[in-house]
Amino acid sequence: MQSECQINGCRRMHHRLLYGADEERRPQQRGGFRRHGGNQQPVPRRSPARMPSRRDGHRDQEGNQQPAVFKNNLGRSAPREAGLPTQRNLSCIDPEGGRLLPVTLYGAGRRVDTYALLDEGSSVTMIDDELRRDLGVQGERRQLNIQWFGGREAREPTNVVSLQISGVGKTTRHALKNVYAVSSLSLPMQTLSRQDVQGVQRDARLPMKPYSNAVAKLLIGLDHGHLGLPLRTRRFSREGPYAAATDLGWVVFGPVSGQSTMPSPRSCLLAVSVDDTMEQMVEDYFDVENFGVKPAPQVAASDDVRAQRILEDTTVKVGRRYQTGLLWKDDHVVLPQSYKMAYKRLVNVERKLKRNKPLAQEYDRIIKDYVLKGCARMLQPDEVAVRSDRLWYCPYFGVEDPNKPGKVRLVFDAAAKVGGTSLNSALDKGPQHYKPLPAVLFHFREGAVGVCGDIKEMFHLVLIRPEDRCSQLFLWRDGDDDRDPDVYEMDVMTFGAACSPSAAHYVKTVNALKFRDSDPRAVKAITDYHYVDDYVDSFATESEAISVSTRVKEIHAYAGFE
User: Fold this and answer.
1) What average pLDDT is seen over the chain?
2) Torsion from C-alpha of 230, 231, 237, 239, nearest 10 degrees
3) Which of 5, 12, 250, 527 is the Cys-Cys partner for 207 at CB 3.0 to 4.6 Å?
4) Is residue 278 part of a domain?
5) What pairing do the DSSP bridges indicate for beta strands 321-324 and 462-464?
6) Rounded to whole angstroms, how far apart are CA atoms 278 and 297?
7) What is the pLDDT of residue 186?
8) What residues contact residue 268 under an 8 Å CB cut-off, 6+ apart?
9) DSSP string, 104-130
10) Which domain holds residue 106?
């Protein structure tokens, strides 16, 4: 039995997959309607134009040019026939939606003057990624799920950031939370001149400065709709344009006298999917079904290319060890002040240690061992006073191995956030060049003799370059909570940093490749039969297993690995 379609409010009795088929077969009539954000809007007839290309859209059955469906709020490109003047435009891209006004944005200690578009047709707020970088803010990587006319969907990789905004020249700042930074907002240029608002009143004064060819770099959607609420309004003529005072200042919108009032074709609805649990379950199911069945060649993402370049530029041999850099997503990272957050976490750890004396002794032993081995050092007061945009205090916690009672490993919580920003949110994971785990395990089943091993404390055997060590500070005071904590600096890779596995794998591989001509089988054991720090190999005879394994240990020792 058929039921109502209900897509975009459709009440027809047909299957949901047939949505839109009736409209495609039915000739459009004069004064018809189009959908706009779920509502019906009148669509004026359009004059015939040239035959379009595939990119331009299509013609309806009457021969009228129809624009291609596009993500108007993301502004990738305007339709070929927008119906608006290009040189002397209205004060907004759409009389039904966007309103342009000058604003000031505040980021990580920086401020930028730009134009914003108030657009009730978008459910989220978006910023051009170039402007985000200018503000020096970092955010959490997330997928923006976009849905527009006809049920079509797309996914846009974004950074989600928090900002502050004010009208130009205004002192009151307003918070902008969950702002999606997209690669290129590319909203069209707009112009507003003094003549546009004179209307029938020749002496009417413009409540805001005119602008010419202004491009909005921020789109304010319904999630911050309160910023665009009119506090009072002005009308320059009966049919517009109109002016409204908002919390961000005056904004002018509506048709200009003597100009075309045909709205730009716009049929966009933006939505963010918060709960992807079901989607993730389906992806996991197919990942398990395809486990080890077919190799999927990885395509290097732009972030991986940048991370690879950092690894190549910063990895050097220093004494018996290798040194490399943290894989920053941006060259101009500005991290928020994190001392208070790390101090509160230290107090929480100390409360736990007071109830567990053996655990307290183990914490103290580990940190003293860090200093003794050169993994960490206590900073002097003059060093603590040095300021940097990348200064970060990292909290930590102990993890006990159930298979090794009494053994504790300190994990640095690089995901701890201050104002939505964490150290890991500013770091890239780096290229994932590990051999697929199924391939490593399948080879282990081939030979009669198996060999297993791992590199002892691998991360702590790779140095971090000095200019990045200020991002690996931590607090400790030997359990004496009557004094201020000492500040320590980790000089090596840490357990918990997002880039540590990739960087350690790179160092291990670079070191091994130096021996590829003299001992190819041992090098193959390191490049193909290691999974990060774990070595799993198999051989036909015991003598071959001993010989190759011995050479693997010697090659690792050249990099300081044990």
Assistant:
1) 78
2) 30
3) 250
4) no
5) parallel
6) 26
7) 75
8) 37, 70, 71, 72, 73, 121, 122, 148, 149
9) EEE-SS-EEEEEEEE-TT-SSEEEEHH
10) 99-270
